[in-house]
Here is the input.
Amino acid sequence: MFHTYEEALNWIHSRLRVGIKPGLKRMEWMLERLDHPEQKMTAVHIGGTNGKGSTVTYLRCILEKAGYETGTFTSPYIEQFNERISINGVPIADEEIVELANVIYPLSIELEDTELGGPSEFEIITAMAIYYFGSVHSVDIAIFEVGLGGRFDSTNVIHPLLSIITNIGLDHIQFLGTSHKEIAFEKAGIIKEGTSLISAVKQEDAEEVIRKRADELQVPTYFSEKDFNVTNHVSIESGETFTWSDQDRTLSDLAISMFGKHQTENASLAVKAAMLLDKEHALRIGENDIREGLKDAYWPGRFELVSDNPILILDGAHNEEGVTALTEELSKRYEDKKIKLVFSALSDKKLDGMIEKLDRIADEITFVSFDYPRASTAEALFHLSGSANKKYHENWKEILTMEFKKVQENEILVVTGSLYFISQVKSFLRETFI
Here is the structure.
């Protein structure tokens, strides 16, 4: 059993060594032993390739404004581990992490001796979150972010009021399939009978797969650009503004504080979700709750301006779709600046396509590595780049400090790549010079 926060955290992180273990049987086994806390929760389930965390945040802030105590389960963490399990945006206490770990630890030991094998790190944290919201601190509503895929993701043991699939991209292809259609099949696994589905999936073949699954379960579907729309989008200095509409309502001049056109899409999913929760599930959510919630929403590591003199931006662009959104926003907002990039990523990503896009936008690009089991080496990333002005450095803290001090008035420094990398960078910046 654990007596300190550090002991509990070390045990949780030690389970990284078992890798990713898709499947629900270990989760179902643990939840049965915990007296099914998943059945005691009111929840929303959010999957998709990109935008999950932002969509969670938009919806959470709307619900908070409406007066509902809202729990969230997200991954990975950016500033501290505890934020993965939060209430109204506030991470649970260190002592609660210890208590939860002490509940799950004996089950993990027992599982090791079964044919199922011991749980992964993500399964342990998911079980902690479900037990917390179901049996320790009951909230009005909990929002769960899918970790990987959907059908066999460890969060897929909950039965939510509604599900959201943000979009489909070619990420985690070694687990989910090599086509949008195959990946859509895995994402569609979170659709449950008796719920509603909201989605921003654009590819026709992926949408067809999702609609087919929804039809099989007789689930009503609401697709962006078909059943609700974002129009009149304008980028402003403090974020974005837009109009949201469906066949029943129009909300003009909505404002968000996160940057990028893609963020208006994430926000639109949260607006539709809030309206369905109000209309179909007796949650009282007004227009002002939506407006104020969207405006207040903040999610670290997503085109985050952490310094404006000199300009330093952090962005967890961890796949091709994320890199595309980043490069488009940089081109739009900083076309008059020289762009200096520091990049690191996990080795199991489709790195060539990501780096090719970054090469096009960067005036200078530096590749680094970081301390994580699946992190690529800086040299391997360097050799994938076709940039004429590239370099690599294995010590990212040293090079980042140097690059930050060298940024000129006509330049910006952008640190991007894996969210696990951004998490480490954020912590380092906070402890050192920002």
Remarks:
- The chain has two domains: 5-296, 304-431.
- The mean pLDDT is 95.
- The chain has 15 helices and 17 strands.
- The domain at 5-296 is CATH 3.40.1190.10 (UDP-N-acetylmuramoyl-L-alanine:D-glutamate ligase).
